[in-house]
Design goal:
The complex is a heterodimer of chains A (about 325) and B (about 375). Chain A is an all-alpha fold and about 325 residues long. Chain A has helices at about 5-35, 40-60, 65-90, 95-110, 115-120, 145-150, 155-175, 175-185, 185-190, 195-225, 235-245, 250-270, 280-295. In chain A, helix 1 (about 5-35) packs across helix 11 (about 235-245), helix 2 crosses helix 10 and helix 11 (about 235-245) packs parallel to helix 13. Chain B has helices spanning about 10-35, 40-55, 55-80, 90-105, 110-140, 145-165, 175-180, 205-225, 225-235, 235-240, 245-275, 280-285, 285-295, 300-320, 330-350; strands at about 1-5, 195, 200-205, 350-355. In chain B, strand 2 and strand 3 form a beta hairpin. In chain B, strands 1-4 form a two-stranded antiparallel ribbon. Chain B is globular. The chains are: A mainly alpha (about 325), B mainly alpha (about 375). The interface between A and B is large, with 53 and 53 residues.
Chain lengths: ~325, ~375
C-alpha cells in the first residue's frame, strides 16, 4: 500500500484542506480584535462571501484562474461591505459590540441576506462552473508523506500561508502594526501618541470582513462547490474561538485552524474507512472540541488571558477617558 | 456634530427610539427588495395582512410569538446582567425534547398532570443545557458566548439523531411509512395545551404562561435580593466581589434561569403547536436567535419583550405563510437584523445628547 494512502497522511492533508477557511476568517478576526473591535458577525460575513463568490463563478466567464480570483475577491469585498455596518455602529456610534456582532450574523447569516441572495438569484442546486482544485506544485504531489500534505493543495491554501507570514511581519515588524497593537491595548495612549484610533479600528474591522469573506468563498468554491443555505455551519464561530485559543497570535492561529480542520475531516475519513458510528457524533466533534479547548485555555497556565488586547470590546471616547 | 453623555434619559425617547428603529428597518429593507426587483409596498402590505389582519392571522401570530416570547425572556434575563447566553436556540431544542419526552411518558395520565409534567420537563432540560456554559463560565472563566453557541449546533445534532439516526423513544417506529420517512411519535391528545378564545383571536396557553414568566422576571430583578445581586454583578464585577456577592453562584443560577425560559419555549412549541418532536421545523424556525432581537429591541424589559415578541412573531408568521417567489426565504432575517442595527444606533440617542452647531462650554463629565 502506498504510504500516501495511509490514514495519517490522508488526515494531515485534509486537516489543512478543511482548516484553511478558518485560517482566513480567524486571521481577519484577529486583526479586528487587535484593534479592540470584537466582531461576532464572522459567520454572517462568511456566508455573504460564500454566496456572492458562488454567484460570481456562475455568472463570470473566462479562464478558470481568472474567474476564481475575481470570485474570491467579490466574496471578500461583499463581506467587507457588510462589515461596514458593524464598524459604523461600534466605532462611530459606540454601540455594544456583542449585540452588534450578533445582529450582523442574524442580518447576513443562514436565515438572512445570504439566504435571500441565494434564493433571489436561484443559486441552490447547481454545480459550480469553476472550482478550486488541488495543484501539483513542482510535480512533487507524489513525494512520500509530504507530497499530498504540502504540494497537492489548492491555491487558497498557499495564499493562506502567505497571509500568515504577512500578518506576522505586519504585527511585529512594521510601524503600523505597532500602532495597531497600541490601539488595542490602550487607545488613550495611542491617541496621545497622535494615532487616529477610530481610523485604525475602521480599517481593521473592514480587513476582518474581507478575510472572512474569502474564508466563506472557500466553502462554496473549494469544499462543496455549490450553494446551500448556512453552508459554513458554524465555522465563523469556531474562527472566533480560534483567536482565543491562539492567544491572538497568527502562527498559533494557523496551528489551531489545522487542529479544527482535523476534527472536521475526521468524520469523512473514518466513515470512508467503514468506522460505524452515528454521523452526528462526527459532526458534533468540532463543536465539542471547541468547548473543550476553550475550557483548557481559559484555565490553569493560560488563565491570565495571555495576549488578549486590553481594550477589546470597549468603545473609545476621547472625552470620557 | 457634538456628542455628550446624558445624565437623564427622557421617557418618551425610550419608546420613540425602538418604534423609530422598526420603521427605519422596514425602510432600509425596502431598498433590498427594490434591488431584487420586488415592490416593497405590495410586499409590506401582504406582510401586515398575513401577520395581523387576515382571518386567523392574530391567532397564528400568537402561536409563533409564544416561543419568541420565551427566548426573548431568556436573552433578556441573561443580557440584563451582561451574561451573554446566545444558546437560546439549543436550549429551546432541549426543552422540546424534554417536554415531548415527558408528554409521551405520561401518555395515560390526566391532562393536567401531563401538561404540568411537560412544563417541568422543558424547563429542566433547558436549564440543564444552559448550565453547561454557566458552570464553565463560573468555574473556568470560559467565554460563555462561544460555549453556549457551540452547544446550539450540538443540540441540533441531538435532535436529528433522536429522530433520523436512532431507534429512540421519541421516534415513531410503529408504521411502515414512518420507518421509511423518519418522524417523531405523536403526543397523546391529552398533551395538547389549552387555548382561550378571546373573540378576535385564540390565545394559546403558552403565551399566557410566557406573560406570567415575564411578570416573574420583572419581579425578580426589581424586588428580590438575588436579582439585585445579579444587577450589581452585571454593572460592576469588582463592586460585586467587594460587596461579598457570591459571583459564581449568581452566574450559574442566572444562566440556568435563562436556559429554563428558552426550554419553556421549546415546551410551548410542542404543547401549543407541533405535538411531536420535529427536528426540521424547530431548526428552520430559528426562535433562539430571533429571541436576541426581541430582547434587544425591548431593551431587556420583560413587559416590552411581550409586546415585541408579538410584533416580531407577526413578522415571522407572515414570513412562513408567504415564503415563495414573492417573499424569498431570508427576508425575515434581513428585517430582524436591520431592526437590531437601528435599535443599536438609536441607543446612542438614549445615552448621549447629539447636538449640531458651535461648540459650547464643556460639560463636566
Amino acid at each position: 500500500m502506498n504510504v500516501n494512502d495511509t490514514i495519517v497522511v490522508v488526515l494531515a492533508a485534509s486537516a489543512i484542506f478543511y482548516g484553511t477557511p478558518l485560517v482566513f476568517a480567524a486571521m481577519g478576526e484577529l486583526l479586528a480584535e487587535r484593534s479592540g473591535v470584537l466582531n461576532l458577525g464572522v459567520e454572517g460575513m462568511m456566508l455573504t462571501g460564500a454566496v456572492t463568490a458562488f454567484w460570481a463563478v456562475q455568472h463570470l466567464g473566462g479562464p478558470d484562474w481568472l474567474v476564481l480570483l475575481l470570485a474570491t475577491m467579490i466574496g471578500g469585498f461583499a463581506a467587507l461591505a457588510v462589515s461596514v455596518i458593524h464598524a459604523v455602529l461600534v466605532v462611530g456610534l459606540r454601540a455594544n459590540q456583542i449585540v452588534s456582532g450578533l445582529a450582523l450574523t442574524i442580518f447576513a447569516g443562514a436565515t438572512g441576506l445570504s439566504s435571500y441572495v441565494g434564493n433571489v438569484a436561484r443559486l441552490g442546486g447547481q454545480p459550480a462552473h469553476h472550482e478550486f482544485t488541488a495543484i501539483n506544485v513542482l510535480g512533487l504531489a507524489d513525494v512520500p508523506v509530504l507530497g499530498p500534505i504540502l504540494f497537492h493543495q489548492n491555491a487558497l491554501v498557499y495564499a493562506s500561508w502567505a497571509l500568515v507570514l504577512v500578518a506576522l511581519a505586519y504585527l511585529h515588524r512594521t510601524r503600523t502594526g505597532l500602532h495597531l497593537r497600541a490601539v488595542g491595548e490602550s487607545p488613550q495612549t495611542a491617541d496621545v501618541m497622535g494615532i487616529d484610533v477610530a481610523r485604525y479600528r475602521y480599517a481593521h474591522t473592514l480587513v476582518g470582513g474581507l478575510l472572512a469573506g474569502v474564508g466563506g468563498a472557500y466553502f462554496s468554491l473549494a469544499i462543496t462547490p455549490n450553494w446551500i443555505d448556512g453552508m459554513t455551519s458554524g465555522a465563523g464561530w469556531i474562527a472566533i474561538a480560534l483567536v482565543i485559543f491562539a492567544f491572538w497570535r497568527p502562527e498559533l492561529t494557523l496551528a489551531g485552524a489545522y487542529l479544527f480542520g482535523l476534527f472536521s475531516s475526521l468524520g469523512f475519513v473514518l466513515q470512508a474507512r467503514q468506522v460505524h458510528l452515528p454521523p452526528e457524533v462526527f459532526a458534533a466533534l468540532p463543536y465539542l472540541m471547541t468547548v473543550v479547548v476553550l475550557v483548557a485555555v481559559s484555565t490553569g497556565w493560560a488563565k491570565q488571558r495571555l495576549g488578549a488586547p486590553a481594550a477589546l470590546g470597549t468603545p473609545y471616547v476621547r472625552e470620557e477617558r | 456634530m457634538r456628542i455628550q453623555r446624558r445624565l437623564t434619559t427622557p421617557r418618551w425617547l425610550v419608546v420613540a427610539v425602538p418604534v423609530a428603529s422598526l420603521v427605519a428597518a422596514f425602510a432600509a429593507a425596502a431598498i433590498v427588495l427594490l434591488i431584487a426587483g420586488k415592490d416593497p409596498g405590495a410586499t409590506y402590505a401582504l406582510l401586515v395582512d398575513r401577520a395581523f389582519i387576515a382571518h386567523g392571522a392574530i391567532t397564528n401570530t400568537l402561536i409563533t410569538a409564544t416561543p419568541l416570547l420565551f427566548t426573548g425572556l431568556a436573552a433578556a434575563a441573561a443580557f440584563r446582567m451582561r451574561l451573554w447566553n446566545i444558546g437560546g436556540e439549543g436550549q429551546l431544542y432541549l426543552g422540546a425534547i424534554g417536554a415531548s419526552g415527558v408528554g409521551l411518558l405520561l401518555r395515560d395520565q390526566p391532562p393536567v398532570l401531563i401538561i404540568v409534567g411537560m412544563i417541568a420537563g422543558g424547563l429542566a432540560a433547558g436549564a440543564a443545557w444552559s448550565s453547561i456554559p454557566g458552570l464553565l463560565k463560573a468555574y473556568f472563566n470560559t467565554n460563555e458566548i462561544i460555549t453556549s453557541l457551540m452547544l446550539n449546533y450540538v443540540a441540533g445534532l441531538i435532535l436529528t439523531y433522536l429522530i433520523f439516526d436512532s431507534r429512540s423513544f421519541w421516534r415513531e417506529l410503529g408504521t411502515f411509512s414512518a420507518r421509511a420517512f423518519p418522524q417523531g411519535k405523536q403526543l397523546p391528545d391529552a398533551a395538547t395545551w389549552p387555548t382561550f378564545d378571546l373573540g378576535i383571536a385564540v390565545l394559546p396557553f403558552g403565551f399566557l404562561l410566557g406573560f406570567i414568566a415575564a411578570l416573574g422576571l420583572w419581579l425578580f430583578y426589581r424586588s428580590t435580593s438575588f436579582g439585585f445581586q445579579a444587577r450589581v454583578l452585571g454593572d460592576s464585577p469588582p463592586a460585586a466581589r467587594y460587596a461579598g456577592i457570591k459571583t459564581r453562584r449568581v452566574v450559574v443560577v442566572m444562566m440556568a434561569i435563562s436556559g429554563a425560559f428558552a426550554g419553556l419555549g421549546g415546551a410551548s412549541e410542542v404543547g401549543d403547536f407541533r405535538h411531536v418532536l420535529d427536528p426540521r421545523g424547530l431548526q428552520q424556525a430559528g426562535f433562539g436567535y430571533a429571541g436576541i432581537v426581541v430582547a434587544a429591541l425591548a431593551r431587556y424589559n420583560p413587559f416590552a419583550v411581550v409586546l415585541v415578541a408579538f410584533l416580531l412573531g407577526g413578522l415571522a408568521n407572515a414570513g412562513y405563510s408567504l415564503q415563495g417567489p414573492d417573499f424569498p426565504a431570508g427576508l425575515v432575517g434581513v428585517l430582524q437584523g436591520m431592526i437590531l442595527f437601528f435599535a443599536l444606533g438609536g441607543e446612542l440617542l438614549l445615552r448621549y445628547r447629539v447636538s449640531f452647531g458651535a461648540r459650547l462650554a464643556a460639560a463636566p463629565s
